Amino acid sequence: MANSFLLFISNLLFSMDIDFDDFFEDSMKIGQIIGIVFAVITVLIIVMVIVSAIKAKNKTSGYIKNIKDKMVEKIEEQKTKDICEYCGSKLKPEENRCPNCGAQRKK
Ligand SMILES: [Zn+2]
Questions:
Q1: Which residues keep their CB under 5 angstroms from ion ligand 1?
Q2: 69 CA to middle of ligand 1, Å?
Q3: Which of 9, 50, 74, 91 has the greatest number of beta carbons closer than 10 A?
Q4: What is residue 105's predicted lDDT score, i.e. its pLDDT?
């Protein structure tokens, strides 16, 4: 009777041991899953940062292009203002009349 009780206890401890092994194995699996989840989140954050950086760069280069276009437009406008619209002579900035044909400077 006492022997079978001890056998029962040792069997119980043995089965508990196996349970503990499973528990540790499970917690290792959980740790791996948490690690994978964190890795995925990290990758997603990196991708989001890269995407937002690219978007910001495109926005900035669009803004710069806009300014450049406006400057080019201004320069072109200034160039046409510096040329007499009647004879095509170059006008100096301070001249109000064309030195060649006497036409009024285009405003
Ligand atoms: Zn002229």
A1: 84, 86-87, 89, 98, 100-101, 103
A2: 29
A3: 91
A4: 82
Spans of the chain, pLDDT less than 70: 1, 9, 12-20, 107
* Centroid of ligand 1 to alpha carbon of 84 (angstroms): 5
| Residue 11 to residue 71: CA distance in whole angstroms | 88
Which residue is associated with the tokens 């276009």?
69
Q: Give residue 91 CA to ligand 1 midpoint distance, Å.
A: 8
DSSP secondary structure string, the chain?
Answer: -HHHHHHHHHHHHHHHHHHHHHHHHHHHHHHHHHHHHHHHHHHHHHHHHHHHHHHHHHHHHHHHHHHHHHHHHHHHHHHHHTB-TTT--B--TT-SB-TTT-PBPP-
Tokens 């009647």 -> residue: 86
Taking the centre of ligand 1 as the mean of its atom positions, its distance from the CA of residue 76, in whole angstroms, is 19
The answer to whether the beta carbons of residues 105 and 81 sit under 8 Å apart is: yes
C-alpha 90 – ligand 1 centre gap (Å):
8
